[in-house]
């Protein structure tokens, strides 16, 4: 309070010049306001009189431009080569006003000296609160008697601004502390990792995207890298996807009202034998009977009130506007007073918000004005108080329109679109759910259920009943909406910073975005992620950062102390950095070290190919120029952006225990066969449990390309180049590395069938026919020949059928109670009474099939190798071939297989989609894969 009736001088500080001008205009009511220049020509000072709580005040309104201060290391640590990056975790940091904002600082110091109050009009989030305390620090150094207040507002409209100035509060120190924690963590982690990886890799490569290679910065950010990780992980999923064929039964019925399509309730099946059997059943009894008619009301519920992340996702999905552009346009609309503050996590309205008043303002719009009128009409019954999504940042309400506009002349198309999106979303969230009706019809054909929606049919004969094949497809690249959703769920960044993290990835050439707003990693981005992943550090995963963000939120609520969170996070990341840097440097020192020479490099024709062992225990043969450090494995992906010396590498089987180059030379790979010198043989020693038992543990082999056994073991065992990773590999199926051999196999999913309880080297789906043939033995008790059951592992004894249809035929049958496994010898047909849990008619055993031997549905043998296998894996005599099941890799039925109907005729109208031949399906097409 002032003495002698003199008005109080109040220094008001906003976050941007435009906000200062807007608030000053609202409070001065456009009259009696004087404008003068400050020290900074962009931050003017507005003066006017105003009454706060009955007290006359002389208001001085100015602004900053975002953060007034920056956090950085002390001068002696700022230069990159001034210290070891590890020291940055303990180096002193200082917060200071940078050179370009000294004029703003001088304005605040000069004006605050003659004022009694300081009112802070910064954005009402944690970042704004931190800026507020930066302003407080500058002003109180000039005048320590200032009475400091905080104005909280969410929209630049008269009602919000006048209410906030009458309800001033004290600034929140805890919010500011949370931002201080984030700034210091990001500075120390980002600087240490950025300096390390830039200095390690920049000198080793020429990066084509940089004009001055010496000034390239390969930056690391605690939020930026997990964001890149989402993009790379999806890219790897796509690259590692192996198409798998499936089969489905389609049913249609033509009537006067049109064509009704019935969907198979099973969806589809990966076992074509099973699909054919069920299809034949339907062909035998094609009459379709209605099993169920279900009519129900369907409600489409309105959306929750609009938050920042949802605004960015919808703008990207509907209008293809980037998150960065969305926030820029939303800021323009906010500062012009048309929408509320656009950075908010809140998706529920306060009971005090006058929602009807907001709708009333939209009644005059030519497009949605009539709907706004109907919403306010009690007779229409359209109004519904919006339901919340459960998020409230306690700072701002959800984004909503604050002023009517039918379209401003200066607006761009993006401004029109975003304003319309905000208005329509608000009108939708205060509306009742949309009501619809749906009729679903289920029909039964030979015990198989099919469904359709929309019409009721009591009984009919299908017009078409076809067995169709399809192929599984990989997921799509992440769209911007998908990426924002992933970041939001994982807690990476805040609503105010997520778009900045995405923009940094694009600016730093770590990722690209196509016209459909879908992201792909660049070779550089993928390389950096792979480099850290190969060392076993999931720094590109969101978990660590999400934990940090959670701790920062606890600081803002007072549940944790600032110093406690800083200490915990930095110690954790320091330990990570120490391991990473030591691994990278030791690898870099060894990069040029020689190895045992196997041959001259056939790619560069300059260096030798040498045998080396990677840190994870796996072997490789690579050019002397090929990177060997754990971190430098990322160079594999830098190929597209670098002019690296050589890229040639041969990955060896992951089941190798030992390998050594010998003095023996290969007689096939001679200098006359594309090699410039002799190719030295390698003595391999494999781990017994990781290779099929018909292969020798010791093998003298050649890496020149002539060694079939080595190639087969690579195919069977994998190379192990990504064996320790939990992500899909681009190189195909992975195998368990030697370091993982002691794990309980029941805790690890088999890489072939994805089931638990066994390891990949003993997977039942991968047992070869030869292993079955070798397993055929004589029962010690009764002298019967036996093979192991593929379902339960019990012995299956050779028996002779005595039924009318199969008298005298030989078959193997499991003796275990409850197991129905059996298989006829070659040329037989299935006679099981139960298939896939469905009882079959007696006539089922007489199904006609040309050149086709049906097999038990729970057996999934496959011949993994082609016929020219040199006699390695002979098909067991008289044992029928078994069709490929789910999880099979390359097994096929015989090329002469023909699918037929129950009458023995080819299926009408069905053709192979590979070659067009009606005599077979694509899964057995001779042209497939050519």
From TrEMBL:
InterPro entries: Topo_IA (IPR000380), Topo_IA_2 (IPR003601), Topo_IA_cen (IPR013497), Topo_IA_cen_sub1 (IPR013824), Topo_IA_cen_sub2 (IPR013825), Topo_IA_cen_sub3 (IPR013826), Topo_IA_core_domain (IPR023405), Topo_IA_DNA-bd_dom (IPR003602). Residues 910-927 form the CCHC-type domain. Residues 9-154 form the Toprim domain. Its cofactor is Mg(2+). Residues 385-409, 720-744, 870-894 are annotated as: Disordered. One of its GO terms (molecular function) is zinc ion binding. Its EC number is 5.6.2.1. It catalyses: ATP-independent breakage of single-stranded DNA, followed by passage and rejoining. Residues 172-578 form the Topo IA-type catalytic domain. It comes from the Eukaryota. The keyword Isomerase applies. Residues 789-828 form the GRF-type domain. Belongs to the type IA topoisomerase family. Introduces a single-strand break via transesterification at a target site in duplex DNA. Releases the supercoiling and torsional tension of DNA introduced during the DNA replication and transcription by transiently cleaving and rejoining one strand of the DNA duplex. The scissile phosphodiester is attacked by the catalytic tyrosine of the enzyme, resulting in the formation of a DNA-(5'-phosphotyrosyl)-enzyme intermediate and the expulsion of a 3'-OH DNA strand. This is DNA topoisomerase. It comes from Rhododendron griersonianum. The lineage of its organism: Eukaryota, Viridiplantae, Streptophyta, Embryophyta, Tracheophyta.
